[in-house]
Design a protein that fits this description.
Length: 146
Amino acid sequence: MSTSSTAASAPNAVWAERAGTRQYIGRNSSGAEVRIGMGPGEFSPGELMKIALATCNTLSADHRLAKALGEGFEATVGCSTVKNDAEERYESFQVEIVTDLSSLDAEQRELLSQRVAGAVDRHCTVGHTIEHGASYTTTIVDPDED
């Protein structure tokens, strides 16, 4: 199948190619791949959304965390949700950054928390998109039509 559609050929493009029943391989223009579906070894679209939000938070604040904790700091970030099953949507997201703060006193922890929140507020595109409820459209394109 051709990926020559406008979406797949654009800079910073992402697309997914069907690999089987309810299975896709997500790709980007830099060569990364992720398995998407509902089976073993696959991320569901909702899980990808949660990972995107969680990592957008930590990538946005990584410099703040590294400055306070050292360049080699270890962290795990998770995202949980409250789902509205009747409307098939998430009502809220909770992001949690887990890292060793034992080298910081209470005042330093509070300052780091404020700086991390500020960095996320300034730089997390995924969070901004969720907060503002971006609209989207879906079209079907035949790659052989001009």
